[in-house]
Design goal:
The protein has three domains: 64 residues, Orthogonal Bundle (Arc Repressor Mutant, subunit A), CATH 1.10.10.10; 128 residues, Aspartate Aminotransferase, domain 1, CATH 3.90.1150; 221 residues, Aspartate Aminotransferase, domain 2. Helices cover 40% and strands 13% of the residues. It is globular, with a radius of gyration of 25 Å. The protein is of the alpha/beta class and 453 residues long. The strands form four sheets. Strands 4-10-9-8-7-5-6 form a seven-stranded mixed beta sheet, with helices on both faces. The protein has a three-stranded antiparallel beta sheet with strand order 11-14-13, covered by helices on one side. It has a two-stranded antiparallel ribbon with strand order 1-2. This is DNA-binding transcriptional regulator, MocR family, contains an aminotransferase domain. InterPro entries: Aminotransferase_I/II_large, HTH_trans_reg/aminotransferase, PyrdxlP-dep_Trfase, PyrdxlP-dep_Trfase_major, PyrdxlP-dep_Trfase_small, Tscrpt_reg_HTH_GntR, WH-like_DNA-bd_sf, WH_DNA-bd_sf. Its cofactor is pyridoxal 5'-phosphate. One of its GO terms (molecular function) is transaminase activity. In the C-terminal section; belongs to the class-I pyridoxal-phosphate-dependent aminotransferase family.
C-alpha cells in the first residue's frame, strides 16, 4: 500500500501500537492532518474510516476521533480491569469532596448548635428557602412551606406509597419497567399496583386514560427525564397531556425528576410546570448529581397532602440530617453547585455519546438499544431466547458488569431479556472494550447456547 491515505493509516497505527496514542486519547483533527500531510480532508477521512473498520479508532459526533481500548498485544496479557456498567452512583472522580468539605466547615461555624439539636420536621428553613430559588430556575415555582427535606427520593416514594390521598383512591400506576426502588416499595407495602408499558417512543396515552378512568389510581409514579432503566424522556407536549389527564380523572402524579439537572435542553420543563391544580408531587435527590452519602432529597407537595405526609414523615424519622442540610445551603448559595453541574453535564453527555457510538459499532441491528441524550442509563434488548441473567453471569467472568433489569418489572410484566447499562462510574476509556465484550457474548450465547453458570 503506497497511497497517501495508507501512509497516514500506518503512521497512526504505529503510534497506537507503540503507545504514543493511548487508549481513549483523541486523535488529531482532520484539518490538522490534512495540513501536516499536504493532502485533502477527504484523504484523511478515508484513512479514519479504514481505521474504524479495523476497530482501532471510533468517532463521536461533533467531537472527533478517539483510540479504541488498548490494542497492544503485550498490554492485553495483563489482567483486565473491571469495566463497571453496574454501579449507579456518580463518577467518583467528579464528586465535589473538597468544596463540600469547605461548606460543612462553614455550616458548623454559621449554624453551630442549630445543626446538632432537634430540627424542623420539614427541614432547615434556610435550605428550603435556598432550594425554592434553586427550583425556580428549573420552572418549579413553590414555597418553603410546601417543601420537605428527606433522606433521598427513595424515602419520598416509601412514604407516599401507603398514604391515603384526598381523591379517596387506593391503587398505584407505574411505568414498566421502572426504578426498582418503586417496585420494591409497592410490593413491601402490599399496595395494588398496575403497570403501563414504556418504550423510547413513550407510553400509549389512550391506554393511560383507560387506566386512570377504570382502576381507581391514587397516583401515577413517573420518571419523565432520563428514565431508569431505559433513558427515555417525554416531550413537553406529552408531559402536558399526562397532567391534563391526571386532572381530568382526579389522579395525582409523583414526578421523580432525579436526573432533571442533567438535561441539556434548556426548554425542557418538569411536569410540575403544567400543573395549575396541585396534582403533581415533585421529588428529586442530590445523590446522583453530587454525593450519595449526603442523603438529601426533596418533595414538593400539594397543600392538601402536607399534613398527612408530615405525619408519615414523623413516624419514619423525626427529621433529616441537619449537617448535610446546612452544608448544601451554603453550597447552593455560593454558586459551587452550578459550577459542578456544568462539569458533570459534559462528563455524562460525553460518556453517553461514547456508549451509543460503541453500541452502534458492535451490536447487531437485531439487538436494539435505547439511545438517550444523556443521563445515567440506557438499555439493550436481548434475543428472547437469551435470559439476561445468563449474559450477566458470563460477562462477570470477563470483569464486565451490567444489571439484569428483571427486578424493574412487576411480576405480570416480567421480561428476562433486558439489561441496563449505567455509564456513571465506568471509565470512558473502557467503554468500547466493554460494549465489544457484551456484543461478543450476546452473539456467542445466542448462537451456540453455551451455558455460563
Amino acid at each position: 500500500m503506497n497511497t497517501k491515505y495508507s501512509v497516514i493509516m500506518n503512521d497512526i497505527k504505529q503510534k497506537i501500537f507503540e503507545g504514543t496514542l493511548k487508549s481513549g486519547s483523541k486523535i488529531s483533527s482532520i484539518r490538522y492532518l490534512s495540513e501536516k500531510y499536504s493532502c485533502s480532508k477527504n484523504t484523511i477521512i478515508k484513512a479514519y474510516n479504514e481505521l474504524e473498520k479495523q476497530h482501532l479508532i471510533y468517532s463521536i459526533p461533533k467531537s472527533g476521533y478517539y483510540v479504541v481500548h488498548d490494542v497492544n498485544p503485550l498490554n492485553n496479557m495483563e489482567d483486565s480491569p473491571k469495566i463497571d456498567f453496574l454501579s449507579a452512583g456518580p463518577d467518583n472522580a467528579a464528586m465535589p469532596y473538597k468544596d463540600f468539605q469547605h461548606c460543612i466547615n462553614q455550616a458548623i461555624g454559621l449554624y453551630k448548635g442549630e445543626l446538632f439539636t432537634y430540627s424542623h420536621q420539614q427541614g432547615l428553613m434556610a435550605l428550603r428557602k435556598e432550594l425554592t430559588k434553586h427550583l425556580q430556575d428549573r420552572q418549579v415555582f413553590t414555597s418553603p412551606e410546601r417543601m420537605f427535606i428527606l433522606s433521598g427520593s427513595q424515602q419520598a416514594i416509601n412514604l407516599l406509597t401507603p398514604m391515603s390521598f384526598p381523591n379517596g383512591k387506593s391503587n398505584i400506576l407505574i411505568e414498566q419497567p421502572t426504578y426498582f426502588g418503586a417496585v420494591e416499595a409497592v410490593q413491601l407495602h402490599n399496595v395494588k399496583t398496575f403497570g403501563i408499558e414504556l418504550s423510547m417512543e413513550g407510553i400509549d396515552l389512550d391506554r393511560l386514560e383507560y387506566m386512570f378512568r377504570h382502576n381507581e389510581i391514587k397516583f401515577f409514579y413517573i420518571i419523565p427525564r432520563f428514565h431508569n432503566p431505559l433513558g427515555h424522556s417525554y416531550s413537553n407536549e406529552e408531559k402536558r397531556e399526562i397532567v391534563e389527564l391526571a386532572n381530568k380523572y382526579d389522579v395525582y402524579i409523583v414526578e421523580d425528576d432525579i436526573f432533571g439537572d442533567l438535561d441539556i435542553n434548556s426548554k425542557s420543563d418538569p411536569m410540575f410546570t403544567y400543573d395549575p391544580r396541585g396534582k403533581v408531587i415533585y421529588i428529586k435527590s442530590f445523590s446522583k448529581i453530587m454525593l450519595p452519602g449526603l442523603r438529601i432529597g426533596i418533595a414538593v407537595l400539594p397543600e392538601l397532602l402536607i399534613n398527612t405526609f408530615s405525619r408519615h414523615k414523623f413516624s419514619n424519622d423525626l427529621f433529616s440530617t441537619t449537617i448535610s442540610q446546612g452544608a448544601l445551603e451554603i453550597y447552593l448559595k455560593s454558586g459551587m453547585f452550578n459550577s459542578h453541574l456544568e462539569n458533570i453535564r459534559d462528563l455524562y453527555r460525553t460518556k453517553m455519546e461514547i456508549v451509543k457510538a460503541a453500541c452502534q459499532h458492535y451490536l447487531s441491528p437485531n439487538y436494539p438499544f435505547t439511545a438517550p441524550e444523556t443521563g445515567f442509563y440506557m438499555s439493550i434488548y436481548l434475543p428472547r431466547e437469551l435470559p439476561a441473567k445468563r449474559l450477566v453471569n458470563a460477562l462477570q467472568q470477563e470483569n464486565v458488569f451490567v444489571d439484569d433489569a428483571k427486578r424493574m418489572y412487576l411480576p405480570e410484566f416480567q421480561k428476562e431479556n433486558l439489561i441496563r447499562v449505567c455509564i456513571a462510574q465506568v471509565d470512558k476509556n473502557q467503554i468500547y472494550k466493554g460494549v465489544e465484550t457484551i456484543a461478543k457474548y450476546i452473539h456467542t450465547l445466542k448462537n451456540q447456547q453455551v451455558e455460563f453458570y
